[in-house]
Amino acid sequence: MEFNTNDTKYRRVLDRVAKLKRFYGQALRGLLAILITGAINYYLNEWSHPWFLWVVFGVVVLTILRAIRLFGATILFGKDWEEQKVRQFMEKDNF
């Protein structure tokens, strides 16, 4: 299947795929950071002071924020909202 590379829809799809790839890579790096710090924490004090949970908390919060930005931001201010506002401002005479 061939795609017209000048097509704006095709460019948007490529951008979306690149953002998904970056998100999954960041999630995997976060998981790796959790595993490494957990192993170090266990090696140093065998869970008597579970300080690696701060790393878990940070990685989880960042991953949730990135997921909301990637998947959930379109719920509030998606393409439909943008098009509606453009139409609204175009219809105003004094804008």
From TrEMBL:
Ranges of residues in domain 2TM: 13-91
Entry's transmembrane regions: 27-45, 51-77
Originating species: Croceitalea marina
Entry superkingdom: Bacteria
Pfam families, A to Z: 2TM
InterPro entries the record matches: 2TM_dom
Record keywords, A-Z: Membrane, Transmembrane, Transmembrane helix
This protein's name: 2TM domain-containing protein
